[in-house]
Structures are given as C-alpha cells and as structure tokens.
Specification:
The structure holds 3 protein chains of 3 kinds.
Chain A lengths: L4 E7 L5 H6 L5 H7 E5 L9 H7 L7 E5 L2 E2 L3 E2 L2 E2 H11 L2 E5 L1 H5 L10 E2 L3 E2 L2 E2 L10 E4 L6 H13 L12 H4 L10 H5 L29 H4 L7 H4 L21 E2 L2 E2 L8 H12 L16
Parallel strand pairs in A: 1-2, 1-3, 3-7, 7-11
Antiparallel strand pairs in A: 4-8, 5-6, 9-10, 12-13
Chain B lengths: L1 H21 L6 H7 L4 H7 L3 H25 L4 H18 L1 H11 L3 H4 L10 H16 L8 H20 L11 H12 L2
Chain C lengths: L2 E6 L6 E8 L2 E8 L6 H5 L7 H4 L8 H15 L7 H30 L7 H18 L8 E2 L2 E2 L5 H22 L4 H6 L3 H5 L4 H11 L11 E4 L9 E4 L2 E3 L7 E6 L4 E6 L8 H7 L3 H10 L3 H25 L17 E9 L2 E10 L2 E8 L1 H6 L8 H6 L8 H6 L5 H4 L2
Antiparallel strand pairs in C: 1-2, 2-3, 4-5, 6-7, 7-8, 9-10, 11-12, 12-13
Helix pairs in contact in C: 4-5, 4-12, 5-6, 6-12, 10-12, 11-12
Classes of the chains: A alpha/beta, B mainly alpha, C alpha+beta.
The complex binds iron/sulfur cluster (SF4) (2 copies).
Chain lengths: 296, 194, 419
C-alpha cells in the first residue's frame, strides 16, 4: 500500500457542520485507515492546532481542506489565518474548499467586512489566491455531503481525471441539479402547483420557494445520511450549494404575474411556458388524490 | 410531409373564410371542400372531421399571432411600447384577416365542446399565451408592470381588445380601429403599470 | 506577573484561556474567542421565516436546537398557533436525538483522550451516525435542516420512517450498552449508588475510576448554582442553588452584557451567573444518581461528566416513549395564519449543552432584532472572574491540575458563543 496521504483541515469562520457531517460517512472508519489527518477539528490527528500554529512554517500536507469563510482579519494566537493558508497552499498538491462558505463566502459573508470564499465572493472571481486556482476544487454545500468529500479525496489520491466545471466543482456531483431524483418530480412535470406542508404530495417549486431545479447538487441522488433529503421530506431546497446562498425569502416562490421568476437551469422561458401550458391543460386525477388514501 | 402541411394550411385558411361568411355550424365538409375546389373525399385525407379542422384552425391563429408578438418580446422596447405593438398586431389582424379573430371570438371561445377533446384547457392557443406570459413576466421583472395574478392581467388585456374588435365587427365604432390604438394602449398601461 | 495563554482546541472551534499563576494557583481566569460571525446582524431586515434556515448554521453540532429555538420564537410572536401531538413529538424526538449524538461525540472524542482511554473511534461514530440518520429520516438531513416551521413540521412520516426509527433506536440502545455501561440502560435512571456503576464494565465506569484514581473527582467545583429554562417530557424548568429548588423562571430577567476582553456576551439571571447543562438539568429534575454524585463531589468535573453521560439513558428512554406515541394519522402541520406585522417572541429549548434562548422582534413584517443566548455563554463568559462559572471551576486551582479536562467538562461550544 502506498504511503498514506496527509490531510489538513483548517477552519476559518465556520459552524463546524462540515466537520461533523464528514463523521456521518458510512465508511469513515475505513477511509481513516488510508489517510492521516495532520489536523481535523474532531478526529484524532497527528498534531494539535496549537502545534501547527507555532510551527506551521516547517509543516506540509498533501491535501488542504479549507472550511468556513475566509476573513481578512482572522488570526488565531497571533497567527494570521491567511498567511497559514498561503503557506500550506503552496506546498500541497490539492486544495479543497469544503462547504459553501469556503467556496463562495456563504452565510457568514453578510455578517462582517472582508469575508469571502477562497476564490469567489459570491459569483465574483477573486485573485488573492489565484496562483492556486488550478489546484483547487470547490465542494459547496451547507454542509457538503460527506460522500463528496470522501470520494473526491480518494479520487485525488488515486490519480485519474476529475472533470470540473468553471467554478471548479466536480461534475460527478455538481453536474446534476437537486431536483434530479426528488420524489416530488411528477408533480413538477405535470405542473400541479398545489403544495401543502406536512404532506407527501406536491412540488414546492410553485409556491414554497424550492430552488432544486436550478441548484447544482446531488442531494436527491446520493441522499442524506443514507436515508432522505430536504425536498423528499417536504422542505424546499434553499439552494445552499449555490453562490448566492442564502437569498432572501427562502420559503416562497418569487413570481411575476404568476410566473416563477427563476426557471429550471438552462431552460428558456419560452420552452418552460410552452411545456407548462400543455401540461396544465390536462387534469390528471391521480395527482389530486392523497397517496395514502384508501381505495375502494 | 412538408407538402401535406402546406396543403393543410391552405384548407384551414379557406375554411376560416367560409366560416366567417356562413357561420361555423352552417358550413359542412362538402361546403369547405367545394370552396377549395377539391372533393370531400380528398379533404378527409387531411382532416377526419370538422372538429379536427377547427382545432387546427385555432392552432394556426394562435401561432400567427404568437410569431408576431414574439418579435415584440425580443425587441428592446419598454413595456409601454410593447403594449402598443401588441394592440397594433391584434387590430391589424382584425382588419386584414377578420376571419381569424372572428373565429377566435365566436367559435373558439363560445363553443368549447368543439375543442374539449384535443384542445384541452388552452393547449391549442398555447403558443399565443406563452408569448403574452413572457411579455408580462418581463414587464414585472423590469419593474414596469405591477406584479399580480396572471389571469387578472390577461383578462384585462385580452378582454379589452376582444371587446373593441367585437364592436368593430358589428360596425359600431365611429372611427377606424387603428385610431384607437394610442388611447387603448395608454389605458392598458395605466391599468397594468406600476 | 505574566499571564499564561492556552489554546483550548476541539471545542467546536477554539477558545483562548488565560490566567496568572500565583503561588502555584490559577488567578484571574479569563476566556476569549477569536472571531464573531454576526448571525444576529445577518438576520436583521430579513423575512422572519428566513431565520429558520439561517439559524441552524450557528452550530454544526447543535444546529437543530437552534432551529427549535427559532421556530418557538416565531410561534410565540404569532401567538402560539396550535400544533398536533404528532408534530410536537417529532420535534422533541429529533431534538433529543441531536443531544444523544452530541453526548457520545463529546465523551469519546473530547473526554476519553484527556483521560488516556483507548476507546475505539467507532464508539463516537456509530452512535452519532445512527442518531443523525434518525433525524434525517424525518427531517431530511442532518446537520442543517429546517423541517420545523410555524404550525408544525413539513414531513409526513409513514410506516417506513416509523420502523426505521424504531429499529435504529434499538441500535442506539445497543451502543449505549456496548460503549457506555454494560447494563440495561433503564437501570441507570433508577440507580442511586455510585459504587454500582463503578463495578460495571464500560467506558463510563472506566473514566470514573481513572478520575478517582488520580484524585480529580472533586476538581472543577464552581458556584453550585444551576439553571434550566427548557421544559419537556424529561426536563424541568427552574433553578437550583445547591439542593434548594426554585421553579418557574422569566426570560425577561436575563441580562446580557458584552465583555470586550472576551469578545462575547456574558449572561446573568437577576444579576447572577448560573451553570447550565446536563448537571443543572439533573439537579433541577432531582435525578438520584447525579444528586448522589453532587452530594459527594459537589459540582465537580466528575459530577458533570456523569451527568452528561448518564443523561443519554434518560434521552434514549424518552425517544422510545416518543416514537411509540407517534400517531401517524394525525396532521403534521396546521396552517398557522398570517405572520403578524409586529411582535416579540421568545424561544427556549434545552440544547445538548444547556439552555438556549432566542428572542425575535418583528416590525413591519421583518426581523427588527434577533438575539441568541447560548449555553456556553452562561458557563464560560463573565466580566468578573469572581462571578463566572468556568472561573469558579478554575480560580485558585493548582497549576498542575488537569485544566483542560476541567474546562472541557462543561462541553464548551466556541462556534455557538461566537454566533
Ligand atoms: S457552508 Fe454552511 S455548513 Fe459550511 S461552514 Fe458555512 S454555514 Fe457551516
Ligand atoms: S420539490 Fe423541488 S426538487 Fe422536488 S420536484 Fe419540486 S422543484 Fe424539484
């Protein structure tokens, strides 16, 4: 077996959910056998953060994982986080921005000055770390699905190609939308625009602000905690993998004269409205009945 | 294929003229075939029934208007100017192709049973409705039109135009239809604008 | 005299602890945090419902408690709309499961290494993963969901979800027996004798023995004042000074004040600091085993560790009752009516680390003000070392004492404090 790769997890302004989420990976114990953590905020690590802060200039890692929003003024024990990130970024082979905060700035970027992701501030490209752009991979999500972290690290360790999009997100996971695989798809297809909370039926695109059809992610394909997803249980997708997360009015669909202001990814208004018009013309009884209703 | 399609359109155009003269219910398949100089048997190769022909006719009208409104939608004009363009398209169609608007108002809207099987809801006028929706949606997105329910806006716009064309058809308007475009557009804008 | 500065890490972020050593004893203890994320500022001028999505992101390990505090605060501002028993039970269940995963992680990832215990990583991961998937089966995912909304919950669990919950809970109970104490988990709740536990197998008795062997069992004693705001099937509201108990508290008696050197807000109730968390809950609810530990060792690190780990047994029992009581035929959600244009609401819950309090003020339909008071603020932040809870636990302690263990016996959450 090849030498174990050394991973380093450095939190910036974070909530620690990405770190906790990783612990939910079904094969974490096995994964841990192939990699060492120089530091992880929860898992057993080779060094303490204290030691790293004192001696980071003499240390290196193979894969650097950055969690949380970067903040220009953030320092720990007098060490500027920016300097430390730059040091490890130089020598490592890959950088992963873990979560929406580290990728785009995320939720906390509105809480203070000078906060952003590593390469992006929302959709805007930054150049502070642009020397490392080519070795960076973006794993947005609030939090990111643990399977994505584990399989991307594994793929990097094993070599081979990892197709990325322009935000440097792996296409295997971000080439889909959250809508793909949602159990409410039929209600979307046939334009049943009614949805009531607390029910298995209905699609939340029309009234309750579901952003699944235009948010990149595979929440409904790889499922959360191995069992479900927000939209499956009946919570709208809030687009937490996207550069603009969190938008405003997260529980209602913004509409212009009754027409959803945002349409499925890449679908033109004309295409959407034509199909919607056809679908709406037909009343399909099955979609107006409760799934669990007893039948005569 | 292409040829068959063209021929179908010719039949629709001929039929619309006949419907306008004789009325939809009084026009029979042999009448329509006769007016086009073809045999009834031949016409049945294209349409199995008068209903089918009527449905094709409404799709044809919807598409005729949609193509023209789409050009308006794709222009860079303000919503106020677009309203005027759409009103003009509608009135010019009523003036130049009265049989179309006549069919839409007198046959399509008043004889829904003819369209129940195959033209459910608004499927057969979908192209036209889509363009109107795009016009509304963009007007709201650009903050020129007030955000409201689609049907309240649609009813106001189309009901108004339909009413004017009806008056025109009944020769009750003292002036030429075009001379109302300006005022009507202004009224619609005032009703729908922010 | 120079101050010692120590980085306490793996407390959901880091805290910097500083003190002076005088004649071998700690003096002038204080804590400080590296940053603040500004959640309260982010919330201002947003639609009230947005808080349901933003607030869980305060914390990766107790975000669900923040969701519950938020939904209660919003509901209180709406005049407390009616909920079905099913919706209430589901909310209680997922909140309780979050505590269970927290306690397992804390004991095996935070405390065990400090005692030099060789517990396997599975002891932390298997139970927390199972609890997380149980939350997800009704709430969609964990961490970070917003499935509780004013009026109930968004989901409609069926027999699928119910049976997953049922059997996963049995798994959790199995982990308790395998990793914590090798006994029927119900017996912990009734047990009154510490010796009975000490004689058993499992990592809890092992940890207790290690602490006692080193003579640490009475370290970390503080003010002996406890407070519990949340109330539910197993927790009781009230405060307890040593063993005297006072019921019913008023959240408007809470005072928050910014402590500049700490970078966080301290919290008092009618002018005084209180300890919050499992030890406080056990004292207020008069749990026999923990009262016995308190009688012998005071509000020490051992009492704190025992209270938190033994609480798992009560939480598991509560989950079992909740799951059994869920009537799938009830509605999950009752439309609560329009949001008021203005109003004030309080949301109080017991989170893993203690009482969590949210307060929302709505004006013109938007959030005009939002404040969050987290358990770690109660336990860790004080402007006066003579008053604070952690300060009481460390002040005057020998410099050779297990300072980090005393500190972490509070189950500190840095990210919550720096919301
Ligand atoms: S992206 Fe979400 S999960 Fe990640 S640190 Fe930010 S708030 Fe936490
Ligand atoms: S609820 Fe959302 S993700 Fe599911 S089908 Fe509807 S739009 Fe798609």
């Amino acid at each position: 077996m090849a030498e174990k790769k050394l991973l380093l997890w450095l939190s910036q302004l974070a909530c620690n959910a990405n770190a906790h989420s990783l612990l939910n990976h079904p094969s974490l114990e096995e994964f841990q056998k192939s990699f060492d953590w120089l530091y992880h905020p929860l898992l057993p690590s080779l060094s303490s953060l204290d030691e790293i802060l004192d001696n980071y200039e003499e240390m290196e890692c193979d894969i650097l994982l950055i969690d949380g929003a970067l903040c220009a003024g953030l320092s720990k024990k007098g060490v500027r986080m920016r300097d430390m990130l730059e040091h490890f970024a130089k020598s490592c082979s890959h950088i992963l921005t873990v979560g929406t905060c580290a990728t785009y700035g995320g939720i906390f970027s509105a809480g203070g000055e000078d906060r952003s992701g590593l390469h992006f501030d929302g959709e805007k490209r930054l150049d502070g770390f642009s020397d490392f752009f080519e070795k960076s991979i973006s794993l947005p999500g609030c939090p990111v699905h643990p399977e994505i972290v584990v399989s991307v690290i594994t793929a990097l360790a094993q070599g081979g190609s990892l197709p990325l999009d322009s935000y440097r997100r792996p296409k295997e996971y971000y080439g889909y939308t959250v809508h793909d695989g949602c159990s409410r798809n039929e209600y979307f297809e046939y334009k049943i625009d009614r949805h009531d909370f607390g029910h298995l039926e209905g699609c939340m695109f029309y009234e309750h602000g579901c952003r699944g059809t235009y948010s990149a992610g595979s929440c409904n394909m790889i499922l959360w905690n191995g069992v479900s997803s927000k939209t499956r249980v009946g919570e709208p997708c809030h687009g937490c993998t996207e550069a603009d997360f969190p938008t405003r009015g997260l529980w209602r669909t913004e509409k212009h004269m009754g027409i959803p202001a945002r349409l499925p990814l890449g679908v033109s208004k004309r295409a959407y409205l034509s199909l919607a018009g056809v679908a709406k013309a037909f009343r399909i009884d099955r979609f107006h009945r409760r799934i669990l209703e007893d039948e005569e | 294929m292409e040829e068959k399609r063209d021929r179908k359109i010719q039949i629709v155009v001929g039929a619309l003229k006949l419907f306008a003269e004789k009325g939809y219910y009084r026009s029979t398949i042999p009448d329509i075939a006769g007016s086009l100089g073809m045999s009834s048997g031949n016409l049945y190769n294209y349409f199995h029934s008068k209903e089918e022909l009527a449905q094709e006719a409404i799709r044809y009208i919807s598409s005729y208007l949609a193509i023209r409104i789409r050009e308006v939608n794709e222009s860079k004009k303000s919503s106020r100017e677009k309203i005027e363009d759409i009103v003009r398209i509608y009135f010019e169609t009523a003036r130049d192709e009265p049989q179309m608007i006549d069919f839409f108002l007198r046959v399509y809207l008043s004889n829904r049973e003819v369209f129940s099987d195959g033209c459910e809801g608004m499927v057969c006028v979908n192209e036209f409705i889509t363009e109107i929706m795009i016009f509304f949606e963009e007007g709201v997105a650009n903050e020129e039109l007030r955000n409201q329910d689609f049907f309240t806006a649609f009813g106001l716009f189309m009901g108004y135009l339909g009413g004017m064309v009806f008056l025109y058809g009944e020769r009750m308007l003292p002036k030429a239809l075009e001379s109302y475009i300006e005022d009507i557009s202004e009224n619609i804008y005032r009703a729908l604008g922010v | 005299m120079s101050r010692t500065l120590r980085l306490i890490e793996k407390v959901e972020g880091e805290v910097s602890l500083s003190y002076r050593v005088e004649n071998g004893r700690l003096r002038a203890v204080s804590t400080s945090f590296f940053s603040s994320r500004g959640i309260e500022k982010i919330l201002r001028n947003r639609e009230a419902m947005d808080a349901l999505v933003i607030n869980p992101r305060v914390c990766g390990i107790c975000g669900h408690a923040h969701l519950m505090a938020t939904v209660r605060a919003l509901e209180s501002a709406m005049g407390n709309p009616k909920l079905t028993a099913k919706a209430e039970a589901l909310r209680e269940l997922t909140l309780t499961l979050e505590m269970i995963q927290n306690h397992f992680k804390w004991f095996f990832l935070t405390i065990a290494p400090l005692l030099g215990m060789k517990s396997p990583i599975q002891a932390a991961i298997e139970p927390s993963r199972t609890a997380a998937s149980m939350i997800a089966v009704v709430a969609g995912q964990y961490p970070h969901n917003s499935y509780a909304i004013p009026g109930g919950v968004v989901c409609e669990p069926t027999i699928r979800e119910k049976s997953i919950l049922l059997y996963s809970l049995e798994k959790l109970i199995g982990y308790f027996t395998r990793y914590i104490v090798d006994t029927d988990f119900r017996s912990i709740e009734e047990c009154e004798k510490i010796e009975n536990i000490l004689r058993m197998d499992g990592y809890l008795p092992q940890a207790m023995r290690l602490i006692m062997e080193r003579g640490w069992e009475r370290l970390g004693r503080s003010r002996d004042r406890f407070i519990v705001f949340g109330e539910n099937g197993i927790f009781r509201q009230g405060k307890s000074m040593a063993t005297r108990y006072y019921p019913s508290l008023r959240p408007d008696y809470i005072e928050e004040s910014f402590v500049p050197e700490s970078g966080a807000n301290s919290v008092r109730y009618r002018g005084r600091h209180y300890e919050t968390g499992p030890l406080a809950r056990a004292m207020v609810a008069k749990r026999p085993l923990i009262r016995e530990a308190h009688r012998r060792y005071g509000d020490s690190l051992l009492s704190r560790i025992m209270a938190r780990v033994c609480e798992i047994a009560s939480l598991l029992h509560y989950c079992r009752e909740l799951i059994a009581g869920i009537d799938l035929s009830q509605e999950s959600y009752i439309e609560p009516g329009e949001f008021p244009q203005s109003g004030v609401g309080w949301g109080v819950v017991e989170a893993a680390r203690g009482s969590l309090i949210h307060r929302v003020e709505i004006e013109e339909g938007l959030i005009a003000d939002y404040s969050i008071i987290t358990p770690t603020q109660w336990n860790l932040v004080a402007s006066d070392a003579e008053e604070g809870i952690l300060h009481g636990a460390l002040e005057g302690e020998s410099a050779d004492a297990p300072i980090e263990l005393i500190f972490k016996s509070f189950d500190v959450c840095s990210v919550c404090t720096t919301h």
